[in-house]
Amino acid sequence: xxxxxxxxxxxxxxxxxxxxxxxxxxxxxxxxxxxxxxxxxxxxxxxxxxxxxxxxxxxxxxxxxxxxxxxxxxxxxxxxxxxxxxxxxxxxxxxxxxxxxxxxxxxxx
Amino acid sequence: xxxxxxxxxxxxxxxxxxxxxxxxxxxxxxxxxxxxxxxxxxxxxxxxxxxxxxxxxxxxxxxxxxxxxxxxxxxxxxxxxxxxxxxxxxxxxxxxxxxxxxxxxxxxxxxxxxxxxxxxxxxxxxxxxxxxxxxxxxxxxxxxxxxxxxxxxxxxxxxxxxxxxxxxxxxxxxxxxxxxxxxxxxxxxxxxxxxxxxxxxxxxxxxxxxxxxxxxxxxxxxxxxxxxxxxxxxxxxxxxxxxxxxxxxxxxxxxxxxxxxxxxxxxxxxxxxxxxxxxxxxxxxxxxxxxxxxxxxxxxxxxxxxxxxxxxxxxxxxxxxxxxxxxxxxxxxxxxxxxxxxxxxxxxxxxxxxxxxxxxxxxxxxxxxxxxxxxxxxxxxxxxxxxxxxxxxxxxxxxxxxxxxxxxxxxxxxxxxxxxxxxxxxxxxxxxxxxxxxxxxxxxxxxxxxxxxxxxxxxxxxxxxxxxxxxxxxxxxxxxxxxxxxxxxxxx
Lengths: 109, 492
Description:
The complex is a heterodimer.
Chain A: H1 14-23, H2 30-47, H3 82-86, E1 92-93, E2 96-97
Helix pairs in contact in A: 1-2
Chain B: H1 8-16, H2 22-40, E1 43-46, H3 48-59, E2 71-75, H4 102-109, E3 113-118, H5 152-159, E4 165-170, H6 176-182, E5 185-188, E6 208-213, H7 216-226, E7 256-260, H8 270-285, E8 289-293, H9 301-316, H10 335-346, H11 349-362, H12 367-388, E9 394-398, H13 414-418, H14 425-430, E10 434-442, E11 455-462, H15 468-482
Parallel strand pairs in B: 2-3, 2-4, 7-8, 7-9
Antiparallel strand pairs in B: 1-3, 4-6, 5-6, 5-10, 9-11, 10-11
Helix pairs in contact in B: 2-3, 5-6, 7-15, 8-15, 9-11, 9-12
């Protein structure tokens, strides 16, 4: 029976922490990188105990109840009013959310 | 009668019999909150005017129902159209929800009066409320100690009689663990029993809403009101809702109580061990059969949980992007920095840690080794329970290894904090219901005694999927025999 590949090391490097922070869309300080590297390594070392189990033939379980694709009748229902949707927006230009410029202005600056 | 020194059911009956008015009851609780919420910080905010208006409507006969006039609190991760819904996070400090959670709608339709919102660990991630961005709640039995978490404000509010009933959420023990540490009743229903619509999502395959109360009968009544399928939550189950309140005092016939050696660690506090021994004696005296059951994958629960829950959280919390609602960093210069800075400023460190842990477990190259492996072990944990429930009606076990710990005791090591959930997480992995009851007291120096002067410890009962009715009757038998119902901390 083949075992699924397990990570070579549970030790998280600071470079890995920075990479995961980037994937997570979190700006982290150098201080936090050091702290998170140690704390997350502690947790990963603990969860490595799962590697003791032979789970090759076990079906993954994502959900506690045996239900899939719960559908309802495709009938239009009233949604939230635009004002309700925009009420908490940190920036708005009605009827839109306003965000900083995403693309540059093409001037090449 | 003093409406703050009673149970939810008794208060409901007294209001219905006009022995006390809803307005008197509401004023009495608001008065206690004024006096005691400063040191305890159970509530993040209260809605006195709205509560008194609703109380007047109950007294005027405009609002009726099975909870008419009963003052309750709700955890601050349940959306309401009134007030704020903060999740005890700076991210949502000013957030005003555009709709109300189904469970809260049902409670209000039943006549309950919402006094306010209770403090939690930020986004329900924690076991002590020390992760609240606005300060922790404190344990009414000893304010130097944590109330547990994440529904710590809710448990403190019940223990200190700052409401007659409370609603929390439980993803890995967040109702049962604080209930144990504050000496109250906490029920996590079966996954899907209660609609999660309007509950701010943490880990969607594990989250479930449930009551924290003084008594089993109170919990049964609140569960009755909030249960049922909801078109707005496709994971709410179409299983019929039985009457949880009838027959509560008649124990099931031929009762079999399961004991699993995996939950009886030598590391458990002596008061926890004694509480289990006493509970075993209660059931033996009642004619129940005590059955040994085996839950061999128990030890893998924490590892499985701390991969599955952060993985789901990392996905769920991606919605906090500084665009549509929640905190937006003023420092952002482009779209990516808008996301990254807003999230770094809005989320506390535990939430950041869990997002990163989950992102790592789901990331390319680690997905199979961590996330999928955890989902496979999750099935093994569920199969353990399936097998155990073939030979017993409920499993009796501790809720936590020991009583409430001191502030700061576990904050340096996230892993040490996680290990406090060892006896609660597996019910969430399997989706089964669990209830925690006051099981006795431990004195702070480690010696156990029964005079109520020490710290509470909990006993927990786990039952099969959708068997809450039987689980409540089993718990009620213990509650009646143990006689701890009216144990209350003395507040200064």
